[in-house]
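Hi R.,

Here's the chain you asked about this morning:
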Amino acid sequence: MGKLTVLGLRAVMVTLHAGSVCAQAVMMLMLTGAIQETVLADRRAPVLLIAFLGVVTVQVVLVCVWRLVTMVQRGTVFSHAAFRYVHLVIGAFVAAALLVFALGAVLASGHVVPPGVVALLGGACLAVFGIALIVLVLRMLLAQAVARDAEASQLGAELAEVI
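And here is the predicted structure, written out as tokens:
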């Protein structure tokens, strides 16, 4: 991975993380009553809690990707330590899918929003869960790469003994 690519990726991740912290601050202001007049006044607390936790899942993914990029730079990504971060990313996407589903359930009760919005949230839930499955497939590829790396190291050691 080139230095410019890593620098650009990290700049994007820092910007996204700073934006997510600002979004959480605004959500806390809304939750504590700084903004009283909303369409969802009676469902404000659960909606904002779901949104707040959704932003937390984004932050978890950003931190894990940062760590994985660091491992790529150091050449240690093909190790068992990388699985911890990949598992956290998968868990964060599954949690995000469940949060989108919960948001749809909260908004569907009481007919606060049109049914089309709830259907869109159902589609978004499915899409986020699909991303978790894609990362799971990538985890399997990482497992194969780690196994091949270990096998190559073993063969190299055997070759060194012969020579």
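One quick note: The CA atoms of residues 9 and 15 lie 10 Å apart.

Cheers,
M.
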